[in-house]
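Q: What does the predicted 3D structure of N-(5'-phosphoribosyl)anthranilate isomerase look like?
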Amino acid sequence: MKVKICGIMDVETGVASAEYGADAIGFVFAESKRKISAYKAREIISHLPKRVFKVGVFVNESKDEMERIAEIAGLTHFQLHGDETALFSKSLSLPVIKAISFQNSQSLIRVQHFPSEYILLDGPKGKYRGGNGTPFSWNEADLSILRDKKVIIAGGLHIENVEEAIRILNPYMVDVSSGVETDDVKDLKKIKAFIEKVKGMVKEEVK
């Protein structure tokens, strides 16, 4: 099971997350309390191993600005959290993770043919498009609709509930941000514990 730690803002946390086993690191370039500059993201990314996805999170940004930031920072993936169209997604130079706020299975049908290898299911929209720390109803998500996609689960995940989410949905990856924070700051102990919990589940199933 793969893990994405989103909303990284400093080198120490990015490097530690990768060392703990994170498969993807997310950098927020949309309006958010976790918003980061392209140059700060580049500094962090320069210290990360090649195997780790470097994901830029955007909301209704222009293609030119996204490509500019990706080149400066060294991104490997675009995460689209807005109302971006299929045509827009196809025009981008990097692989796309299309994020949606899960409402019901109809919302999955609308993206089953979206031109992206990855679909991220997030909780309800709050002040921001993502990172609001609210889970969706996992039991209501029929992931067979997205059988041709690599599904990423986000929204309100933390060490106490991630095991249940994985057992219900069996996603490709789980994505956490606020669930590994203390007082709105990434907490290395929580990041380590979260990753160990998720990776440990796989080991338990193999036994």
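A (community wiki): The structure tokens above were generated from the sequence. The chain has a mean pLDDT of 92. The two ends are 15 Å apart (CA to CA).
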